[in-house]
Amino acid sequence: MHSGPVSPPLPSRSNIPCMLNSVERLLFIRNVPMFKELRDDFLVRLASVMDEVFYDSNYTIITEGQEGRSMYIVVSGRVSVHIGGQEVAQLKEDECFGEMSVFDAEPRSASVTTLEPCACLVLTQQQLYDAIDETPGIAVNVIRLLSRRIRELNQDLNQVKQQLTQPSPFPQTRPQWYRPMPFPPSEPLARSGS
After folding, report:
1. Please, what is the Cα angle at 30 between 59 and 40, to 5 degrees?
2. What confidence tens digit (pLDDT) does each residue in 53-103 have?
3. Residue 157: is its pLDDT beyond 70?
4. For the chain, what is the domain count?
5. Confidence (pTM)
6. CATH code (residue 47)
7. Burial label, 6 (beta-carbon count in 10 A; 0-12, 13-18, 19+)
8. Is residue 14 part of a domain?
9. Is 70 a member of any domain?
10. C-alpha to C-alpha distances, 118 to 79, 129, 182, nearest whole angstrom
11. Count of alpha carbons within 13 Å of 55, Cβ hemisphere only?
């Protein structure tokens, strides 16, 4: 996987999807769960400040542990969210990532790598804070999104705990014929060839 700055090198022309015009961008953002309940006039403003970026396949957009100040919304393609090399989710069109670091200014909790050529809309921390100042309803939608993700993680954690506490299918008792040998042995062992 390629790791690098947030701004990727220009992909080959054949992989670049068409850019969204302002109407398409508005219609797209309206379908993103975080922004669904917002007024159109606010969405128009938000759509106008977002940058559209393109990434080749197998490009690391976000690296776990690095500082981040932007969130991303997948316009086309798919990305893999992974922690320590272990995939935890795949995200597709209308789904977002990177929103946690935008709010808490902590290092990124996961890496995100493209699985195929992707287009994303990028919203910076300052753009999001300005949007929340103007329309506080967006904060409620972000809280809902983060709460849903925490619930999903809790469900996954509970499933793993249940798997770990289930009895083993292998017997834990030793067969009757088994007798452990004392160590060191009380009697010297016979040497072969004596």
Report:
1. 135
2. 999 999 999 999 999 889 999 999 999 999 998 999 999 999 999 988 887
3. yes
4. 1
5. 0.66
6. 2.60.120.10
7. middle
8. no
9. yes
10. 8, 26, 65
11. 32
